[in-house]
Structures are given as C-alpha cells and as structure tokens.
Amino acid sequence: MRVFNIAVLIIFFSAAQAFSQKFTVSGYVKEASSGEALIGATVVDANNPSVGQVTNVYGYYSLELGKGKYEVKVSYVGYQSKKIEVDLTQNVSLNFELEEETANLEEVIVSATRKDENVSSVKMSTEKLQIERIKSIPALFGEVDIIKSIQLLPGISSAGEGTTGMFVRGGSSDQNLILLDEATVYNASHLLGFFSVFNPDAIKNVEIYKGGIPAKFGGRISSILDIQMREGNNKKFEASGGIGSISSRLTAEGPLVKGKSSILVSGRRTYADVFLALAKDENIRNNTLYFYDFNAKLNYQLSDKDKIYASGYFGRDKLGFQDLFGFDWGNSTFSLRWNHLFNDKLFLNTTALYSNFDYGFDVNTSGLAYQWKSGLQEYNLKMDFNYYLNNSNTINFGANTIYHVFSPANIESKDSNIRNLGLANDYAVETALYVSDVQEINSKLSMEYGIRYSSFAKIGRDSVSIYENEEPRREENEIGVDVYQPGEIVKYYGGFEPRLGVRYLLNSKNSIKASYNRMRQYLQVATNATAGFPTDRWIPADAYIKPLIGDQVAVGYFRNFSENIWEFSVEGYYKWLQNVVDFLPGEDILLNDKIETAVADGVAWSYGSEFMLRKNYGKTTGWVSYTLAKTERQIDGVASGKPYLARYDKTHDISVVVSHEFNKKLSFSGNWVYATGAAVTFPEGRYIVNGQSVPYYDDSKRNTSRMPDYHRMDLSLNWKMNSSSEKYEHELNFSVYNAYNRKNAFSIEFREVNNQNPSFDSENDGPITSTTPESVKTALFGIIPSITYNFKFTGK
C-alpha cells in the first residue's frame, strides 16, 4: 500500500498543472496496410511541435490541448506523416492509419524511432532494433537471430562461438530477463545454444534495457529484453516464409473479422534429420538432430474501449544418438491480455501469463538405463496502468503476482532392481507493486522516476537442514531438520527498488543523461558453465541463499550530427552486486538436494565505458560500437577469498555493422567483431588416479588465464528478384559466416607429449623419456556459406 500512497501523492502533486480548461485528443496509431499498432509514433500540435506525446506498446496516445482549433500531426519514421484539423470544445477520439513511405535510394531508413530520440528521450542504456535491420545482418547458416544481433550492440557480449548466451554490463547470462509478449522465456536457445528460439517473421518489436530500467520491470539485475510478437494483418491475407540451408519457415496471417480481428501463425523447423536418414552409415542414419518452434497470436476488438490478445509460443529440440542416448528440451509460453480504456487518460492492460521450461535425458546402455526429467513453471497475473495526467506527466503504476514451481530432477530407472531417484520440488510466490512518472520539467529538463517494491516467499512443502552455529554448511555439521507443510512460509524477502533517469538538453543536438536503478533477483542458475545450457538448474532464494541485489549508476553524453543522420553516444557505468553466488571447487550441483552446501556468496562489481556511432539514413547505414569493461568477484571460499575475474570478463569488445543499398533490388551487409578472450582457469598440472591422468586446478588462480582473442567477419548479399505479380515478392540471400576462415578457439585441451633425450639412462640402459604439457585448440566453425530463399504473398 505504501507504493500506491506514493502514486496518489505523485498524481496530486502534478494535478496543480491541470486546472485550466483542457481537452484531450486520444486514440490509436496503426499501419494502414495491416492494422498493426505503431509503437512510439509521435503525435504533436503541428504549430507547436514541443507539445506532443508518443504511442505506447499498443499504439495508444493521449494528447492534452486547450480549447480552440488545432492541426494534429502524426509521424513515424518510414511512414508518411498525416495531419488532421480538430476544433476542440470537448474531448475527441481520433485514430490514425499511416501509409508506408516508398523510400528512394538516398533515403534508406533503418530506424523505427523519431529522428532525434537519441538526444531528446529521457531513456539511456536502452537499444531498440528494427526487425528489418536484424534480418539484414549475416548469420550462422543463414539463420536470422535476434540475440546474436543484440550482441553487436555496446555493453552486450556473447558467451562464445556459436552460442546465444549474452552478458550485459558484467552480468551473467541468468541475470537477463527475456520476455516474449510479457511471458518469461527461461532458455532462449536451440541446438545447445547455436540459435535462439525467436523466429523473426513473428516478431514486431525488440528492445533491450541495460540500465535506467523502468519501474514496471523487475526480477533480474542486469537487463530486460522485451520482445513483442506481431498482431497479424487485419486487412488482408498474407503468407511469407523462407527455405534456408538448415531450416524452413512459414508465416500466415489475415483477418477473422476485417478491421477488428486478426490471426497470425508462424512455424519453423530444421531438417538435419532428413539428411541423416539418407546417410549410408546406419550409425549415422539412426541419429536424431532437429528443432522446431511455433508462434500464434489472435486479437479481437470487443469495442472502442476493449481489446483482447491471446498469443503463445512452443518450441522443442531433439537430439539422439541411435537408441543409446536421447536429449530433448523446450519452452512454452502463453499470454492472454485485455486492454481497457477507462477514459481518454487512463489505460489498463491486464495480463495472465504462463511459462514452462523442461528438459529430459533418456539413457539406454549396457548396465545403465534411466530417464531424467527436470523443469520449471511460472504462473503470472499482472495489471499495468498508464495515466496520461497531462502532456508533461505520464504516470505508470501496477502490480503482479508470480507463482513458481521448480522441479530439479526426477530420475526413473528402467531396471527394476535399481530404485528411482529425485529431488523434491520447490515452490515460491513473487509479488511486486510499482509506480513511476515520466515528467517534462521544462524545455531542457526531463525525468523518469519511480519506485518498485518486490517480495519473494519461499513456501512449503519443504525441508530445511539446520547446521551447527559458526560451522560451515556441511552434511557432517547438520544438527536437525525443519519441516514445512504446503503453503507455509519458509523464508521471506522483500525491499524497495528505486529508479531514476534524468535528461538535460544542452541544445537541440546535444544532451547529457544520468540514471540509477536498484534491482532484486530471487532466482538464479546453478551451473559451472559460462553460457546458458538446457541442463542449467534454476534455484530460488531460500533460508540460506539470499536474493541478488544490484545497483547501477550510469552517465552519458549524446550528440546528433547532420540533421540527425548521424548519432553518437558515450556512456560510463558502475555496477555493484550483493549476495552473488559461486560454486565451491569440486561440488556437485545437479543432484544436490542441499544446494547450500555447494555454494558460497559474496560481492561483485563491474564498470566500463561504451561508445556508439550510428548512421540511420542514406543508402549506406550501420554502426560502430566499442566497449571497455572489467568485471570482478570476491567470494569467501573461492580463489582463496581474493578478488578474481568473472568467467565472462572481456576487456575489449568491438563491433562494426554496415549495410549498403546499391539499388532497389540489390543490397549488401557485413559485420566484423573483435573481443578479448574470456577469462579462464587452466590446469596447473596433473595427478594419477587409478591409472588415469586427472588435471589439477589451483583455485587460488581462478580465471587468471585467457582464451585467445576472438575476431570474425560475416558478409551477406540480398537480391530481390523480378516477379510477374505485384502480389508476390521473392528474394535470394547469400551469406558467408567467418569470411576469412578465422579458427577461433571453442575449447583448449591440455595433453602430455613424450620427449626423448638422446642421453641414456644408465640403470635401464635406454633413452631418457619425459613428458611436457601441450595445449590443443579446438575450433568450432571455419568459413560457412549459406543461401536462403525468401518469399511473400499478399492476398485481397
């Protein structure tokens, strides 16, 4: 209730600005050809452009003006602006449909935001990528990948060759909240991390927050990746798709009730298993390797004030080696949303969400046959309000409740003589209340400030071990067990999360921005790997493992050049984390029902600078980004208690992305990346156990070595082919991944090499033989060409 008291105070404080007679122009801005809502469209008084609003994620706006005649102008980059005259003597509902611009060769547009948003917006540490830009970036095997495209932005680095795990400003991969139509996606990878689960044909909007995170978001301490699916064309039927090197995809969309309702379905599947079946070798022919995913979305306008959306995603990977070993994993999400407009100023979105992630093994070998299942589920109910108090204040407030179910492991033996094994399920309830205000103080100063209160209750059924005071948490120090019945609170955590963003305009082309945010994270991954893998075990905060708390400050300078054609920004940040967990050397994770005995907690900190130069307009577009950063941890029991580099620390990270349109039919794209090798612990020596050589690691030297530096160039050529019908479009895309065949290290293995000394051993009457360690680098990919055929059909 304290948060909503603050909301009342904010509304009361700001209402003093609204006593004069005012009227409201409100409505939706949509794309004329499809009826898709346009996010971030600008609605202004044409005679006074400083008075305006932008549309929310559902295309809704609310603009307050005094009594009189006005010319209201709506604009969205890439679309023809539209003006409508209104005579305001009462509140007016005004919807707009914008036609797409036919860009000429000199005005290629790759931004979906207003031209000066880099400078004028209060947002910082936030990046938005247009789907068309993502589709133009060369990719592995020609598979367009949203997450790999995001890794080309400053402050965001990859886990390594061929992986979709991402690290944002020194945070681990599990510290990123990935949302698809507001539902959590816990594992966003296909084929053990080589591709992400997001089919770009079904995606409408992609935005990532690295800092200055709005109060409506919570649950992770490093970043929020907010992805929205397309609604589908409510004017006419369309079908599009593509046939690529390893997969094909198909999307169909169209109206159910023209102008009021639409449906979209989109599917993608690889066909590596088809080629395996053609192999002559039976051992290869009986293997399994493929993934598929399916997206669907339905929306219906019930009235002028009510609209419902239902969307879902289902994806799965299957990998098998003959009948000996099988491995499958997958995600499923479901979102049901109801938009309600109380009046022209108050907008409500109510959402019911479901997320599921699960994986399983199936092993059938001589003497060993079992099936392993693991997973987690999330049930979420949330309400988000937008209150357009006036043109200078947009207040957002809301609440949500999440019920978590964790299923760590359930092992069923196929041998009746061996008992089944399993770890008990964990249960938790997470809640949050928030309120924030985006306020324009004057023509130069704008702020976004808010507060969020989050809480987390670990609940029964549960058993909690009690350990002897001041003794390490070890089984030999256990002195008792507390048993909790279903629904009983095992441990409760909670706290406030303040958020603040400030923008000061030096002039129309320069601004300075600063932000601060505190985040709390109640779930984290138990893993010894760097990237996120399907076998990762998510664990909740409990009686011994505290929630992560992250604080971040950032400051930046933003400058636009040449009529907003060029954007430049530099940001510096410092982030510090509490209750960071790392795993003690040699401890078991996956089958440990007392996970607190395998972990220790401490602190972490990261800091760095990010530089970005981007060109959004013209026949040549792209960007150059550079990140200079450092990430360290200090945890008792790890690295002798001294500070050590995080596994994903990379000092330098550079990305260059370029696109060039030769003409309306032929375009080129390329990117080049360079990164310092990740920190790693190499073995110090070896010892013999039962005749086997076992590497020895000195934990006091954790992550003191580095992998070799990484660099790669990718190239792509897109050719739009002639068509006999205006309703049919098709094109060919030629891509080359790793164009100069760089052998980047995926792993480094140490082995012993025999050396013979020409002198003789007098006792054994033979040459002296010794061994020395030798490192062997394994590269995952060389040069990989690919070709993709894309098509689109538009009906009546």
Detailed description of the structure:
There is one protein chain. This protein is mostly beta strands and 796 residues long. It has two domains: 2-98, Carboxypeptidase-like, regulatory domain (Immunoglobulin-like), CATH 2.60.40.1120; 226-676 and 708-721 and 783-794, Maltoporin, Chain A (Beta Barrel). 5% of the residues lie in helices and 59% in strands. It contains six helices and 51 strands. The strands form eleven sheets. It has a 22-stranded antiparallel beta barrel. Strands 9-16-17-12-13 form a five-stranded mixed beta sheet. It is globular, with a radius of gyration of 28 Å. It starts with a helix and ends with a strand. It is a multi-pass membrane protein.
List keywords for this structure.
single chain, 796 residues, mainly beta, Immunoglobulin-like, Maltoporin, Chain A, five-stranded mixed β-sheet, 51 strands, globular, Plug_dom, membrane, signal, Plug_dom_sf
